[in-house]
């Protein structure tokens, strides 16, 4: 046989390999440059077009319903498109939901913007410097060394306990702060329990001090500053943020947003603080926010008011009763969840691993795309048969010597 015919017979297999290998070698998991920005609204997409299995996502849908999980919303965004959106309860896409401590991640973003805009000198500025007009109790050298950075990564050193008693219990320190005459003064007056930077203690009051710093330096309460510098550029128009008795938004909780707007915030961090050509949050701030300054417990890190799940390569904004924004940079993925999970019934990471991640990992572009399957069959089967038939036809047509 003429060598060129061997080449022609091998050509379909070569072309098929060139098509299949990129589809199955993880390229569909790479970060993509967004081809649009959801400032006005999100676009939706069939999961397969974003490298996910709709079959697995339907299994997720069925599991949520069969288990009666107390979810109010569940959104999956990949490559900038909503591929799954579900509102199992009475909530709808137009309803704002309380975020609880997810609010802390928004407060952190506002601190980063305020530093970038020159309102706040740096994360290493002592906290007491922002409240020089106040008389502060228990003011010792340790409290004077407490910085913005210490508030951000929950290592302020203040005496504090909000986990030993329910939040409705008057013995809970956060409960006491909320019902005090002046929440900022209450926090500034707290005694020191440790050297700042040495001990991690979850402290929602420290996040409220961050809100106070925003107000002291910008002249705006956090919600006003957010609309000017964060919500406005992202196209977030519906937001409510509860205030304390002195009119300051609670920096550690109580922000209300729509789930799709939560996803915008996740997309902003997924894209290193950039939005439609504008650097809304400094890239380095996004990096530092997800960098674990400490590990509160095994496998879990904490940065600038953001959590990190080390085994899953995700970073998250987390709130009471299962409010979550989960960001997975390697998968170019965002998961948003709101819930009324008062009894801790939702295994958040279980849902993500068992269904969302699996929808990516089990995605097969060949079986998922009938057109692609037809092309492959044509290349692998039909074309070689035609070429072989043509070869023997030519061989028979040539007279023997």
Task: Show the helix and strand layout.
Layout (H helix, E strand, L loop, with lengths): L2 H22 L29 H14 L3 E8 L2 E6 L10 E2 L4 H14 L24 H5 L2 H5 L20 H6 L4 H6 L15 H15 L3 H13 L4 E3 L13 E3 L1 H12 L3 E2 L2 E2 L3 H8 L3 E4 L2 E3 L4 E3 L4 E6 L3 E6 L4 E7 L8 H14 L3 H4 L1 H28 L4
Antiparallel strand pairs: 1-2, 1-13, 3-5, 4-5, 6-7, 8-9, 9-10, 10-11, 11-12, 12-13
Helix pairs in contact: 1-14, 2-12, 3-8, 3-9
Q: Pick out the low-confidence regions.
A: 13-29
Helix/sheet category: alpha+beta
Query: What CATH architecture label of the largest domain applies?
Result: 3-Layer(aba) Sandwich
In CATH's first tier, which class of the largest domain applies?
A: Alpha Beta
Alpha plus pi helix count? 14
What is the alpha-carbon Rg in Å? 27 Å
What is the general shape? elongated
Please give the alpha-carbon distance between the first and last residues: 16 Å
Mean pLDDT across all amino acids: 89
Care to count the β-strands? 13
In helices, the fraction of residues equals 40-55%
CATH topology of the largest domain: Beta-lactamase
CATH H level, superfamily name of the largest domain: DD-peptidase/beta-lactamase superfamily
Query: What letter string, H or E per element, gives the SSE order?
Result: HHEEEHHHHHHHEEHEEHEEEEEEHHH
Q: In what range is the share of β-strand residues? A: 5-15%
**Main sheet specs:** 8 strands, antiparallel
**Tally of discrete structural domains:** 2
Spatially, the strands of the biggest sheet line up as 2-1-13-12-11-10-9-8
């Amino acid at each position: 046989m003429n060598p060129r015919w061997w080449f022609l017979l091998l050509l379909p297999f070569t072309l098929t390999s060139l098509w299949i290998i990129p589809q199955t070698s993880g390229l569909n998991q790479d970060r993509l440059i967004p081809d649009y920005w959801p400032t006005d609204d999100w676009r939706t997409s069939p999961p397969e077009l974003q490298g996910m299995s709709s079959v697995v996502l339907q299994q997720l849908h069925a599991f949520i319903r069969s288990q009666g999980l107390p979810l109010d919303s569940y959104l999956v965004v990949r490559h900038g498109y909503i591929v799954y959106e579900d509102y199992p309860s009475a909530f709808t896409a137009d309803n704002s939901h309380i975020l609880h401590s997810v609010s802390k991640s928004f407060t952190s973003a506002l601190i980063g913007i305020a530093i970038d805009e020159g309102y706040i000198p740096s994360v290493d500025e002592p906290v007491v410097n922002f409240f020089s007009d106040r008389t502060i109790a228990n003011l010792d050298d340790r409290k004077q060394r407490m910085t913005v950075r210490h508030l951000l990564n929950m290592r302020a050193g203040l005496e504090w306990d909000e986990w030993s008693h329910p939040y409705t219990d008057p013995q809970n320190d956060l409960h006491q702060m909320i019902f005090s005459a002046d929440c900022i003064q209450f926090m500034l007056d707290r005694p020191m329990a440790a050297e700042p930077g040495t001990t991690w203690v979850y402290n929602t009051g420290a996040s409220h001090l961050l809100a106070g710093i925003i107000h002291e330096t910008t002249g705006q309460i956090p919600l006003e500053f957010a609309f000017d510098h964060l919500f406005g550029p992202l196209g977030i128009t519906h937001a409510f943020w509860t205030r304390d008795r002195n009119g300051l938004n609670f920096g550690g909780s109580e922000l209300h947003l729509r789930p799709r707007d939560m996803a915008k915030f996740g997309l902003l961090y997924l894209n290193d603080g950039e939005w439609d050509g504008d650097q809304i949050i400094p890239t380095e701030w996004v990096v530092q926010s997800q960098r674990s300054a400490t590990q509160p417990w095994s496998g879990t890190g904490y940065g600038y008011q953001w959590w990190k799940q080390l085994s899953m390569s995700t970073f998250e904004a987390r709130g009471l009763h299962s409010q979550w924004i989960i960001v997975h940079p390697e998968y170019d993925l965002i998961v948003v969840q709101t819930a009324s999970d008062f009894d801790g019934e939702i295994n958040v990471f279980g849902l993500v691993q068992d269904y969302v991640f699996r929808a990516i990992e089990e995605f097969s572009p060949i079986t998922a795309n009938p057109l692609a399957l037809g092309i492959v069959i044509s290349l692998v089967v039909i074309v070689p048969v035609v070429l072989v038939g043509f070869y023997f036809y030519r061989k028979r047509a040539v007279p023997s010597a």
